[in-house]
Design brief:
The chain has 496 residues and is α/β, with parallel strands linked by helices. It has 16 helices and 22 strands. The strands form 4 sheets. It has an 8-stranded parallel β-sheet with strand order 8-10-11-14-15-16-17-18. The longest helix is centred in the middle third of the chain and has 18 residues. The structure holds zinc ion.
């Protein structure tokens, strides 16, 4: 690295023009990514000025990242933003017996916030740090509502906006709301319960939040409405959400076509699949971002294509629970815009691209319908398109300087071939060396601006252990933690 690197500080936008170079640069021409061998990227005041060879102007500093790929920052539209609880269920099934559906007894006792306000704020800051470590520069956060009293709160999202501003992460925020929830009446028997007013109140709070926060922190913070799950939203709530998104000129994200419980519940309530229900009510449009489409029918996908709905594909979390988008390549052929999301721990987009490649090929029964570059496109251009941000997801003059630098010379990734193939097949965000967001240095060599991830990791563990201790309260028949989450192997006692 050149001497000039020393005058860059974490959390700051460098003065004047910065030129960065590496063995490979992802450029952009005629709407598609290109590769430049030993190319240069010049940025100033948060915007990219130049991508190419031999920049003719003056620069304040030159930084050579060596054998690395200078890439557009990754865009994560279902970005893990809490201490992930889905991993507790990886080997522990069924979900309703393991604290993933509220039993009637818990509802009657009065659901409560299992984290305090400070813990809620802390976990978001920690999760944002993890995203930056993985080369993610734009995030639309997602978190579980199982451990919440009801929806997300304005206070934690005010704190989240500040965390994003201080760490230097581009975010699309507002507290998630819902008009209903699933309640467990008997083993395996789940029914939806609704509280319409609570849903409306959540939407009103989210709208006020967006009006207040949109554009803050040098425009790193923008709004996105996030009604939580289609099966726990009423038609009126979704109609008001769509109208509010139109007024605010923002997107709304709604999970649907993602699981059998949802598909069954929506069919029982509305007589069709969720996408068909929304289409009937004219709620499918370019404003809608819809994770995960793993249970979408051919007709559902046809509706997404027809109305310009973007899918968020999260192959790691889906694959781990035994479902997949069938398939990534077929959705592309239909013309559906696909963005990517991490959604679970580890919030590693490169791992998701690898899993996405593998699951697509399994579904296609063929190796030649999808390329590593197609997944890379989804994590960059696809995300930008879903957000309606032509200035994100690529490196070219005029675009925002959201940049991830990935090492290509790590011993675990040798030998290198084509840089995109190497990165996707390597499948690990640990290759991330540096991250710039809006021209600010947000991560360098696993360090972040004003946040110690090593210390934070310890605090996160203690907080998470405290949550696990509360699981019996919302698991069917309230068994002890040792029965809800038994160890992988019997633990031998130390009798000495
Ligand atoms: Zn999700």
């Amino acid at each position: 690295m050149s001497q000039d690197f020393a005058d860059l500080s974490l959390g700051r936008r460098p003065e004047g023009r910065t030129l960065i170079t590496a063995s490979w640069v992802v450029g952009h021409t005629h709407g598609g990514h290109t590769l430049l061998r030993h190319g240069e990227v010049v940025f100033e005041n948060g915007a990219i000025l130049f991508v190419g060879y031999r920049f003719p102007g003056e620069v304040a500093r030159r930084i050579d990242f060596g054998n690395a790929l200078i890439s557009p920052g990754l865009i994560d539209l279902d970005a893990l933003s809490d201490l992930d609880t889905t991993i507790l269920g990886i080997d522990n099934h069924p979900g309703w017996a393991k604290g993933r559906v509220w039993p009637r007894s818990y509802v009657e006792a009065g659901p409560y916030e299992m984290y305090g306000e400070e813990e809620l704020a802390f976990q978001k800051r920690f999760a944002f740090g993890q995203l930056l470590l993985n080369g993610i520069t734009t995030a639309a956060p997602i978190a579980s509502l199982f451990y919440r009293e009801w929806g997300e709160t304005v206070a934690e999202f005010d704190a989240a906006a500040d965390a994003a501003g201080e760490l230097g992460l581009r975010v699309y925020l507002s507290p998630a709301y819902r008009s209903g929830g699933m309640v467990l009446e008997a083993p395996g028997k789940m029914v939806p319960v609704f509280d319409e007013e609570r849903g409306f109140q959540g939407l009103n709070d989210a709208v006020a939040y967006i009006n207040r926060q949109n554009g803050r922190h040098g425009d790193l913070v923008r709004g996105m409405l996030a009604p939580d799950r289609v099966e726990t939203s009423t038609l009126a709530l979704l109609q008001r959400t769509d109208a509010a998104a139109r007024d605010l000129d923002c997107k709304f994200r709604l999970h649907m076509a993602q699981g059998t419980m949802e598909v069954d519940t929506v069919r029982m309530l509305h007589g069709s699949t969720a996408p068909a229900w929304l289409a009937r009510n004219r709620l499918l449009s370019k404003r809608l971002i819809a994770p995960h489409a793993t249970n979408a029918t051919a007709d559902d996908l046809g509706l997404y294509a027809e109305h310009g709905v973007s899918i968020v594909h999260c192959p790691l979390v889906s694959g781990r629970s035994g479902s997949t988008l069938n398939s990534f390549s077929k959705c592309r052929e239909r013309g559906i815009n696909i963005a990517m999301g991490t959604d679970t721990t580890p919030p590693d987009m490169l791992m998701n691209l690898l899993v996405g490649l593998i699951t697509c090929r399994i579904n296609d029964h063929a190796p030649d319908r999808v390329r590593c570059a197609d997944l890379f496109d989804a994590a960059t251009l696809g995300g930008a398109r879903a957000l309606g941000r032509p200035d994100l997801g690529h490196l070219s003059p005029g675009a925002r300087a959201d940049i991830a630098v990935f090492g290509l010379d790590d011993a675990i990734m040798a030998p290198s071939v084509d840089p995109i193939t190497t990165l996707v097949i390597g499948g690990s965000g640990k290759a991330t060396r540096a991250v710039f967001v809006d021209g600010r240095l947000s991560m360098l060599d696993r360090r972040l601006a004003s946040f110690d991830m090593e210390k934070a990791r310890q605090r996160a563990q203690a907080q998470y252990d405290g949550l696990i201790a509360k699981y019996p309260e919302r698991s069917w028949n309230h068994p002890p933690v040792s029965e809800i989450f038994p160890p992988s192997y019997p633990i031998e006692a130390d009798n000495g």
